[in-house]
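Tutorial, part two.
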Amino acid sequence: MLVRVANGAWAGLFGLMSNALEKRSIMLVHLSWGARLGLLGLIVFAGSAIFAPWVAPYGPDEVVGDVWEPISAQFWLGTDQIGRDLLTRLIYGARNTFFVAGAATLLSFFMGSFLGFLAAVRGGIIDQSLSRLNDLMMAIPTLIFALVVLSVLPVNMLTLILVMGVLDSTRVFRLSRAVAVDIAVLDFVEAARLRGEKTLWIIFREILPNALTPLFAEFGLRFAFAVLFLSTLSFLGLGIQPPEADWGSMVKENKDGIVFGIPAALIPAGAIAILTISINLVVDSILSRTTSLKGGRG
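Running the prediction step on this input gives:
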C-alpha cells in the first residue's frame, strides 16, 4: 500500500509540474506590459547570477582601482570602498542572494505547505497542535528571532538557509492550511477517503493540484521577502560574510560613502528594489488573471 501511495504521489507531482508549465507558457502570451517588464528584469538578474564567471569583467575579490572611483568606461558602476569593481561585486552578489533566498524559500514551502495540508486533512489534535505551534512562532518578531539564533550559531550559507526557511514556513503554513481546509471538504476528497486512500495520497493527489495557483503566487512574494530579509541580516553583519558578497553586505560596506556623495551604496540598494518590483509585477499579473487565486488570498 505504501509503495502504491508513494508511486502515485510522485506520478501526480510530475503530472502537476507538466500541466503547470503548460498553463504558465499559455499565460505568458497574455501578460501585461508591466509583467513582461518584470519578467525581463528577473531574467537579467537570474542570468547574471548563473553566468557570473563569464559576464563579470573582473574577479569578485580583485582590487582593480582606487577607492570609490566614479563611473567610467573601465568601471561601469565605479569601484567600492577598497577598489574592487562594483559591477563585478553586484553580479556575484546576485548569485549569493538568489541562491540563499531561493533555497530558503523552497525549504519554507516544503515544510509549510506539507504541514499545512497535513493539519487540514487530519484535523483534531494534529491540527490544533500544529496551528498553535505556528501561532507561537509567528508571535515572535522574525528579525529578532533570527538575530538571536544567528548570534549563537556559526553564520554560513547553510545556517542562513535553515533559519530563514524555518521562520518563513510559518507564513506558508497559514496560507496552505487555509486553502486546504476549503478543499478538504469537497466531494472528490470525501470520495478518496471513502475509497480508503491514505493521507499522503489525499495531500499529493487531491489537495495539492487544486492549491498550486495560490502557492505559486505566494512563492514569488515569499522569495521577494527572503531577498529583503537576507539583505537586512547582511546589513546588520549576520548575513553573508566577507569576502563573499550579497547586495545587503555591499550596502553596508559602502554606506560611509553616502556622506561624501558617492553612490556606491545606492547601486546594490537599487538592485534590491528593482528585483522586488519585478517579482511583484509578475505576481500581480497572475493574481489579476486568476479568479481562484483572488479567493484563496482573500
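The radius of gyration is 22 Å. In part three we will examine how such features are distributed along the chain.
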